[in-house]
Amino acid sequence: MTVLLLRLAGPLQSWGSAARFTRRTTENAPTKSGVIGLLAAAQGRRRDADLTDLAALEFGVRIDQPGSRLRDFQTARHSDTLKAMPLSERFYLADAVFVAGVSGEAGLVQRLYEALLEPVFLPYLGRRSCPPSQPVTITEPLDGELEQALREAPWEASGWYRTRRDTSFRRQGQSPPAEVRLDLLLDSPPGPGRLPDITLRDLPVSFDPRHRRYGLRGVRTTEASVPTTVGTRTAQPPHEPTALLTPVTPTTSAMPVTPTTPVPPVTRTD
């Protein structure tokens, strides 16, 4: 199998598996429907497109930086009647970092990787108001098992989070451990004698806004020990937004500037 690892980091993220009326909650980690939606958007798939191949991908996520839960209130007006809509309550994860992965057929995974490098629709972390703060791709597709890839991937936590963790140990008179224990959430397909630890309704069937449909997915929870070595993360090239702009050459059709005669100053006689 071929594995594609994704870095999901941003100021805000929201990964809901259940929404009821005006209350929009978030899970503690990215959902399969949210990540599949990100990949489908990168490929340019419409909301009513077939998702069978993407839904069949094996999915897993590692919690590198849990973040904190944030609650927000939003108001809106009906576009036709302009009547005020009920006050909605929305939850987010602030300053969280995850390493998510999908595993499947090599050709499909390679196409997903290429789509993320030049996405048709911009990726977002659960909601359109939550853009990623770093490139989503970590490495090129890898050969192997998904769980092994998640266990071996470098720790992607932010520098300030690493420093705060080390400081906490030193204040207690302890040396910071060389490894960190991270939670892993992996697919747990049904089978004889095998029960999932968690069940989520986040298996995408259709993103069609006229009738969104999601199936149940079993999740197995475990832990991974990852080295805390600083500097293992892949260095990103400097961001230069003007590099892709095309220089504009002035044309001769521009209206000429007519010189004006300066007005002499007025001298007061009184």
Write the layout of secondary structure elements.
Blueprint: E1 2-13, E2 19-20, E3 23-24, H1 32-43, H2 52-55, E4 58-65, E5 68-74, E6 88-104, H3 106-117, E7 142-143, H4 146-152, H5 159-171, E8 179-187, E9 198-206, E10 213-227
Parallel strand pairs: 3-6
Antiparallel strand pairs: 1-6, 1-7, 2-3, 4-6, 4-8, 5-6, 8-10, 9-10
Keywords:
CRISPR-assoc_prot_Cas5; extended; ten-stranded mixed β-sheet; 5 helices; 270 residues; CRISPR-assoc_prot_CasD; alpha+beta; Alpha-Beta Plaits
Shape: extended
Taking the alpha carbons of the first and last residues, their distance comes to: 96 Å
Structural class: alpha+beta
The portion of residues assigned to helices is: 10-25%
How would you sum up this structure, described in words?
With 270 residues, this protein is an alpha+beta fold. The protein has a single domain, classed as Alpha-Beta Plaits. 18% of the residues lie in helices and 31% in strands. It has 5 helices and 10 strands. Strands 1, 2, 3, 4, 5, 6, 7, 8, 9 and 10 form a 10-stranded mixed beta sheet that branches. Strand 2 (19-20) and strand 3 form a beta hairpin. Helix 1 packs across helix 3. The chain is extended and about 105 Å long. The termini are far apart. The mean pLDDT is 88.
